[in-house]
Design goal:
Keywords: Membrane, Transmembrane, Transmembrane helix. This is MFS transporter. InterPro entries: DUF6326. The protein is an all-alpha fold. It has one domain. Strands 1-2 form a two-stranded antiparallel sheet. A hairpin with a 2-residue loop joins β1 and β2. It is flat, with a radius of gyration of 26 Å. 13% of the residues are buried.
């Protein structure tokens, strides 16, 4: 009497397009970016400082709010741009924006007292930015055109001409 052992079926591992990888990574970056700021409200004294018109060392003003909105809007727009820009522009834009956000992200640690909290958030954000740079940098190239790949070699052409 034989017993049937279950066979482990291999899961299909579909290739994910670079555009989708970039959009997903920018989305993850934005969640971290937003949640670090949101969770910061639970840091003692932060709400009091905001009510007194200060964020970190900056006075709350229209200029501060516009700058903060711009810093958040760029990665948000990168989600859409990663899915819609042509490949070459997409690659260059992702490489440029992700590289520019490395120092912006690192700046968030300056003067913070909760280094474990901010340190973890910044490290995770930097890992995501590194993934964006990697995905954009290693964007697959297209194969040579089909006419070149399928054109007959010289010897085949000569043989046909001689026949």
């Amino acid at each position: 009497m034989t017993t049937r052992q279950p066979t482990a079926a291999t899961l299909e591992d579909q290739r994910i397009p670079v555009r989708a990888k970039l959009a997903a990574t920018w989305t993850s970056f934005m969640f971290l970016y937003a949640y670090v700021d949101i969770l910061n409200f639970f840091t003692p004294g932060v709400i009091k400082d905001i009510l007194n018109g200060k964020v970190f060392e900056f006075d709350l003003s229209q200029t501060f709010s516009t700058t903060a909105l711009t810093l958040v809007a760029i990665p948000i727009l990168m989600v859409v741009l990663s899915m819609t820009l042509p490949a070459r522009a997409n690659r260059v834009t992702n490489l440029t924006v992700a590289s520019l956000y490395v120092p912006v992200t690192a700046f968030n640690a300056v003067g913070e007292s909760w280094l474990y909290f901010y340190g973890l958030g910044i490290v995770l954000e930097l890992i995501l930015l590194a993934l964006i740079v990697r995905h954009a940098w290693t964007w697959p190239r297209t194969a040579p055109s089909a006419t070149v790949a399928t054109s007959p070699d010289r010897e085949t052409v000569r043989a046909q001409q001689q026949a």
